[in-house]
Design goal:
The chain contains no helices and 11 strands. With 120 residues, the chain is mainly β. The model has no long low-confidence stretch (mean pLDDT 96).
Length: 120
C-alpha cells in the first residue's frame, strides 16, 4: 500500500510564510496527480493546489499569486510554499496522491493532515 505523510505546518503571523512538504512511500508503481486540500472548522474540505507528474498546476482562486505548488518526482514529494498568509488560510492541510501500487490499482491516498494557523 501507499502511505502519505505531511509536515511543515505551524503557527505564523499574517503576512508570513510556511512551506509544507508531503512524501508518498510504500509500494508505488507510479503517481499521477499530487495535491493539497484544506479544511477549516465548520467548512468542507477544499482543493488548494494540484500538480501533475508533468508539472501542470492548478490553484483555487483565493491562493493564486501567494501559494506555489511544486514536486520532486524522484522523491515522490510535493511541496506547498505559502506566502503572504492570511487568517482565512487557517485550516488543516491535507496532502493527496493519486497513485498506483500495481496494475489496475490506481486510487487516491490521503495524509493525516497538518495544522496551519495564521494569527492576525
Amino acid at each position: 500500500q501507499v502511505q502519505v505523510l505531511e509536515s511543515g505546518g505551524g503557527l505564523v503571523q499574517a503576512g508570513g510564510s510556511l512551506r509544507l512538504s508531503c512524501v508518498a512511500s510504500g509500494k508505488i508503481l507510479y503517481i499521477n496527480r499530487m495535491g493539497w486540500y484544506r479544511q477549516a472548522p465548520g467548512k468542507q474540505r477544499e482543493l488548494v493546489a494540484v500538480i501533475t507528474s508533468g508539472g501542470n498546476t492548478n490553484y483555487t482562486d483565493s491562493v493564486k499569486g501567494r501559494f506555489t505548488v511544486s514536486r520532486d518526482n524522484a522523491k515522490n514529494t510535493v511541496y506547498l510554499q505559502m506566502n503572504s498568509l492570511k487568517p482565512e488560510d487557517t485550516a488543516v492541510y491535507y496532502c493527496n496522491a493519486e497513485a498506483s501500487s500495481g496494475i489496475g490499482s490506481l486510487r487516491y491516498y490521503w495524509g493525516q493532515g497538518t495544522q496551519v494557523t495564521v494569527s492576525s
